[in-house]
Amino acid sequence: MLWYKKQADATAQQSGGDDAIVPAELAVDFDRSIAESKLNALLEQSKDVGGVENLIESLNAKCLLFGAAFPAKRPSGWSLTQETLDAVYAAVFQVRRKLGAIHAAIGAQALGDGVVDLVYGDKSLQDRLLGFVSLVPEEMKKERRAMRDLAAEILHFRDPEGMPLMTRWVWDEATASGALREFIRGNDGLPEIPIDNRAETFEGARVWFAEMLAEAGFYRDVPMLIDLLLAQAYSDYVKAMSSGLGMVQAEFGQSHHPLELLIKLLGVDPATGRGIGKAGEPTLH
User: Fold this and answer.
1) How far apart are CA 82 and CA 79, in angstroms?
2) I need a surface site. Which of 143, 179, 220, 236 has the fewest CB within 10 A?
3) Contact status, residue 280 vs residue 96, Cβ threshold 8 Å
4) What top-level branch of life does the organism fall under (predicted)?
5) Has residue 246 got a pLDDT over 70?
6) Which of the four pLDDT bands, split at 50, 70 and 90, describes residue 268?
7) What proportion of the chain, given as a percentage, has pLDDT over 70?
């Protein structure tokens, strides 16, 4: 629990303590040598974009965007403008291509109201997440998955120390897939992966990575570095599994750089240091 006390205090300030997440004890063992290998690959590949510091700076810029959009405490008379919402949506790669269908199904106003309830609602974190996803009809499965990722990014990037990143690419219990699986040695031979989708489990995993990074000598910007490490692992997995079938290009577009998938997953632009590019499309160029 490298920075648990700070996380709990920050989250309690935001929501009266309701969202303070106690890290769960993991039922799996992550492999430190795999994590170190992914970290080294991240550090090496990021040299082409000015170093991992540029990636962290871009993530911090995204946090500033989300933090400005959703203040820690909801101000009196505060309202969320469509312009602000559009800027937030543009920074979440997984939702951009689904946004038209979501708006057509429930309307822009209902989606915006749902975002406000997600962030500031009185219900438990899990209930708010489920309620936000269920705004979209059940038969719209792809759009529901995008809603889950949108919710996860909003909650995390407005409070990166208090809330773990809970996108499906980090971990999806329903398909037993995601970045976390890539840190379990011999995962292909396991009949099941005992990791659930609770926030406490995501936080338990994050504490493990924080401790690993501390032992490697990394103490600053730890939440952002963990996001990058997870994205590195998932990008490696996607490229290994699907590059021969052309699936990477179909899902993420033409990729010419090892970090291209990572950059799109996290919605950052290390070329400029901004959270997103001018056209809302993260790019290395």
Assistant:
1) 10
2) 220
3) yes
4) Bacteria
5) no
6) confident
7) 83
Q: Is the pLDDT of residue 273 over 70?
A: no
Domain ranges of the chain: 4-16+31-71+79-266
Question: Looking at beta carbons, which pairs linking 113-118 to residues 24 or more positions away fall under 8 Å?
Answer: 115/80, 115/85, 115/88, 115/154, 116/80, 118/151, 118/154, 118/155
Tokens 């590195």 found at: 232
**For residue 280, what pLDDT band results from cuts at 50, 70 and 90?**
very low
